[in-house]
Write a structure and sequence with these properties.
The structure is a single chain. The longest helix is centred in the C-terminal third of the chain and has 17 residues, at 306-322. The chain has a 5-stranded antiparallel beta sheet with strand order 4-5-8-6-7. A 4-stranded antiparallel beta sheet has the order 9-10-11-12, with helices on both faces. Among the domains are: 1-53, Uridine Diphospho-n-acetylenolpyruvylglucosamine Reductase, domain 2, CATH 3.30.43.10; 221-322, Enolase-like, domain 1 (2-Layer Sandwich), CATH 3.30.390.50. The protein contains 13 helices and 12 strands. The protein is of the alpha+beta class. Strand 4 (57-60) and strand 5 form a beta hairpin. The protein is 28% helix and 21% strand.
């Protein structure tokens, strides 16, 4: 591990003033500490932001607002989340282990780096870690890798369960920098790899996530997060589906659907949503809609099972919601 300087600013303004080239923000540390030890990330300056006033879960102007430093475990259990937005609570509870959920923050979860083994192995080439060095995953071990949004430079899967649920609900991230504040739709915040996989998101140098907001959605109470993985605890998704349904008189009036474990970023499925709208809440209609879930997929040698598994995951989530009273 390489040496770095350390500071613990007490205000957002102070943190932004200290941030610059070669700096990294430290919150829960469940990603950064690992990557620094591996020398995958080598910050020169670490800014401990745990003292900043970026906490709280509240409804403001009709939207759910979650502070960036709220712990994952606390948010999952919060009454403003667990009841009105079960898809968020379930995505959080299916993430990592209880110990990590007690440490990890909302902002940190959204900024966690891929679990691609080549990215984390500094002896391997990786365009995301060392631009231009190559992507061994395209021809090597790629069972866990993406099938949507990939490029000839990268096929790394986005790891966050929470981000999938938030994208399904049209959430936004609120950002602060020395130049002021701005908000970005989470669906636009994450970037496709293209030829520059090292650019993972729309964060500007020194910019800080301050909170996340979720627009009001009356029928979000009928929502769920289904995650398919190799084991039931502390494992990343092979496929996942975040689904919310407006279901009345046995007919789907509207739907929100996003997928995880399959994309280089959280993957919204508008074609599935459109096919569901106006359809009867029956298994055959769900299967017809889910048939569009993997449109445009580019499977690799070891993950050709993912398109069908994704379709089945979406159907499972829809059937679960349709069966709720």
């Amino acid at each position: 591990m390489r040496p770095y300087t350390y500071a613990a600013p007490g205000t957002v303004r102070e943190a932004l003033a200290l941030a610059g080239d070669g700096s990294a923000y430290l919150a829960g540390g469940t990603t950064l500490v690992d990557l620094v030890k591996l020398e995958v990330m080598t910050p020169e300056h670490v800014l401990d932001i745990t003292r900043l006033p970026l906490r709280g879960v509240a409804v403001r102007d009709g939207a759910l607002r979650i502070g960036a430093l709220e712990r994952m475990a606390d948010v999952a259990e919060h009454p403003l989340v667990a009841g009105p937005y079960p898809v968020l609570a379930e995505a959080l509870l299916r993430s990592a282990s209880p110990q990590i959920r007690n440490m990890a923050t909302i902002g940190g979860n959204l900024l966690q780096r891929t679990r691609c083994g080549y990215f984390r192995d500094t002896a391997s080439a990786c365009n995301k870690r060392v631009p231009g060095s190559g992507c061994p995953a395209l021809t090597g071990e790629n069972r866990m890798h993406a099938i949507l949004g990939t490029s000839d430079a990268c096929a790394a899967t986005h790891p966050s369960d929470l981000a999938v649920a938030l994208v399904a609900l049209d959430a936004s991230v609120h950002l602060a920098s020395r130049d002021g504040e701005r908000s970005v739709k989470l669906a636009d915040f994450y970037l496709l790899p293209g030829g520059t996989p090292e650019k993972e998101n729309a964060l500007r140098p020194g910019e800080l996530i301050t909170s996340v907001s979720v627009p009001a959605l009356a029928w979000a109470e009928r929502s769920t997060y289904v995650k398919v993985r190799d084991r039931s605890s502390y494992e990343f998704a092979l496929t996942s589906a975040a689904v919310a349904l407006d279901l009345r008189d046995g007919v789907v009036r509207a739907a929100r659907v996003a997928a995880g474990g399959v994309g280089t970023r959280p993957w919204r499925l508008p074609a599935v949503e459109a096919a569901l709208t106006g359809a009867p809440a029956r298994e055959d209609a769900f299967e017809a809609a889910a048939a569009k879930a993997a449109d445009g997929a580019r499977p690799l040698a070891h993950n050709a099972f993912k398109p069908e598994l994704l379709r089945r995951t979406v159907v499972r989530a829809l059937l679960e919601l349709a069966g709720r009273s």
